[in-house]
Inverse folding.
């Protein structure tokens, strides 16, 4: 591989995807049409469409027939706002349905500098291999000396100069169902992509800087929209909180509203909960930035834990691999986080699974030495999961499979097999609906209702009013933003700092949102996204096209899941959240899911079983 200075410019995108057959070690080019680009945008959207056209429903996710698609968006390499991201789609070994995960880091940018918008991986290597990509040179390198290595050691051996690599750890090699993939110090965390790479004997994919630099098609317009977007982002209150305290900024409002998952979602708060807020961590751990690039929010931070500089655990890690297993010491949570990052495991699913095991142990369903609040055995337990030792072999399957095998389904806090993120929906009913219907399982990012119901306090969290409308709107919007591979966190700045919203008094906005959601939704000006898309790609996209593309992407993913057998009975929440109040909630709240679900299906154009009607598929051109 040569060290090459960029010698060619790509205006927007070349619309080229590299398709690799691992079994035969051959590759071809797949051309994306302009029409497809307009309908599915890029990133997650085009990734899903490519997967839909190739993946047979019903296959075993760990079979060679599973397909991994890695896609960038039109913004990759342009310097657009918070655009250092890329997306992956595949069939998940944790959920058995479509898995997706997005990530920051320079991998997407490096790949695009070789003229590739994405990669399709099918088949399986016979022995451990790493793929190295630079321009049209695709090398298949023996990775037997990397196999078995922890992620940081493998990364050192691969090197980082002018390249970025997607790397799995021992957990991925051992097919742990919630194993992740590292890209530098950022992670493709959810849904077990690490195990799919492991099942293909694929240790790493290395993108070496190529011969292209990326420029927007309409440079002046792009500059103007980019400047405006960054101004909005920088002055937005939630962006500023994230910049100061990282995603741990969420902890304080979540604790205040009794929504912190404590001891497997039994309580919503704890006397030591404030020890894991962003404010306390910043003060005690000397934090500084460690972010995706480019980014004007800067939520990624590093800090000093146990005398060592390392990533500050994200809010989700503090909640799931901390409070939810009864641990409130950031030094200890940081150690658990490090083990997951070294071995290659998602901290949300690891925490959710350990919490189930602790409660099942208390109830005598399984015999382990794991106890809420006792940190002693946790490091060892995480290692046993990654290495499939002893009971770790069972834990590596996640909480749904454990509860199928040993009982205790009512307290397995997962949806469709994916462990729940760190917001107890008994404190925000819209988030309850969001978890129940999110395509990949109990995902907080599909429509992050917490933003409206909690962080901004603009929708009453304890009613069902307007929740189906806003879940649908945010799902469409997030699918579209994810498909541009702009960070979802930009939405606060880009939509809430616009003149109309700024001039509308809070109580008026809140009343509209509560009572006439269609008008409130119409007031949201997200036009900077399609403007950036159009300027970068040269493809004219209106705000209406943008939101419709988001809807198309969401419904396509739903259809793929329906083809895998997903029905209404799967759009639900764990029994604990539907029928059991938190022990420290005097109001005894439970999530009233059924009424919201009925309305949501109607708005979405699903039948009673949750299957999209032909009419909606036709309208969206699916
Ligand atoms: S806001 Fe955070 S997650 Fe988003 S691009 Fe920036 S550093 Fe990455």
């Amino acid at each position: 591989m040569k060290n090459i200075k960029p010698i060619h410019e790509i205006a927007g995108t070349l619309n080229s995807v590299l398709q690799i057959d691992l079994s035969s070690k051959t590759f071809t080019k797949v051309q994306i049409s302009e029409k497809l680009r307009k309908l599915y945008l890029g990133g997650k959207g085009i990734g899903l469409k490519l997967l839909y056209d190739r993946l047979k429903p019903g296959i075993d996710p760990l079979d060679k027939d599973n397909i991994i698609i890695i896609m960038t968006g039109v913004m990759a390499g342009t310097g657009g706002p918070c655009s250092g991201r890329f997306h992956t789609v595949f069939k998940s070994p944790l959920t058995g349905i479509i898995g997706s995960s997005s990530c920051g880091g320079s991998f997407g940018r490096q790949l695009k500098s070789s003229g590739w918008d994405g990669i399709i991986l099918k088949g399986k290597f016979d022995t451990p291999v790493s793929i190295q990509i630079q321009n049209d040179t695709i090398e298949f390198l023996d990775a037997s000396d990397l196999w078995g290595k922890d992620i940081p050691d493998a990364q050192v051996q691969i090197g980082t100069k002018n390249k970025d690599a997607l790397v799995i750890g021992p957990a991925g090699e051992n097919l742990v169902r919630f194993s992740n993939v590292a890209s530098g110090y950022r992670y493709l965390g959810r849904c077990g992509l690490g195990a799919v790479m492991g099942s293909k004997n694929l240790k790493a994919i290395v993108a070496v800087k190529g011969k292209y630099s990326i420029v927007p098609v309409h440079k002046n317009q792009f500059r103007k929209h980019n400047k405006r977007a960054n101004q909005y982002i920088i002055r937005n209150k939630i962006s500023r909180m994230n910049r100061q305290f990282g995603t741990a900024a969420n902890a304080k409002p979540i604790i205040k509203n009794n929504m912190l998952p404590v001891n497997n979602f039994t309580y919503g708060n704890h006397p030591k909960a404030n020890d894991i807020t962003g404010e306390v961590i910043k003060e005690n751990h000397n934090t500084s930035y460690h972010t995706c690039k480019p980014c004007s929010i800067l939520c990624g931070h590093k800090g000093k834990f146990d005398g060592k500089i390392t990533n500050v655990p994200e809010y989700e890690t503090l909640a799931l691999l901390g409070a939810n297993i009864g641990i409130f010491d950031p030094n200890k949570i940081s150690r658990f986080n490090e083990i997951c990052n070294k071995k290659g495991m998602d901290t949300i699913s690891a925490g959710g699974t350990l919490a189930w095991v602790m409660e099942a142990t208390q109830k005598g369903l399984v015999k382990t030495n794991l106890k809420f609040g006792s940190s002693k055995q946790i490091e060892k337990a995480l290692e046993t999961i990654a290495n499939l030792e002893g009971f770790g072999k069972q834990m590596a399957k996640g909480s749904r499979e454990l509860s199928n095998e040993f009982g205790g389904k009512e307290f397995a806090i997962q949806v469709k097999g994916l462990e729940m993120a760190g917001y107890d929906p008994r404190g925000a009913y819209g988030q309850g609906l969001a978890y129940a219907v999110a395509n990949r399982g109990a995902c907080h990012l599909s429509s992050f209702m917490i933003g409206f119901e909690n962080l901004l306090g603009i929708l009453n969290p304890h009613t069902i009013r307007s929740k189906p409308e806003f879940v649908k709107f945010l799902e469409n919007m997030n699918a579209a933003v994810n498909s541009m591979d702009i960070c979802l966190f930009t939405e606060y700045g880009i939509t809430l700092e616009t003149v109309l919203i700024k001039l509308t008094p809070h109580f008026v906005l809140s009343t509209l949102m509560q009572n006439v959601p269609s008008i409130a939704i119409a007031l949201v000006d997200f036009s900077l996204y399609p403007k950036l898309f159009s300027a970068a790609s040269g493809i004219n996209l209106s705000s209406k096209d943008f939101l419709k593309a988001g809807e198309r992407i969401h419904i396509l993913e739903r259809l793929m899941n329906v083809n895998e057998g997903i029905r209404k009975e799967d759009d639900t929440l764990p029994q604990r959240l539907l029928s059991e109040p938190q022990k420290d909630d005097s109001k005894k709240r439970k999530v009233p899911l059924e009424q919201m679900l009925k309305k949501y299906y109607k708005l979405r154009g699903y039948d009673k079983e949750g299957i999209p009607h032909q009419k909606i598929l036709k309208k969206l051109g699916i």
Remarks:
- The pocket of iron/sulfur cluster is lined by residues 82, 84, 104, 291-292, 295, 297-300, 487, 489 (CB under 6 Å).
- The chain has 28 helices and 19 strands.
- Residues 394 and 402 are 7 Å apart (CA to CA).
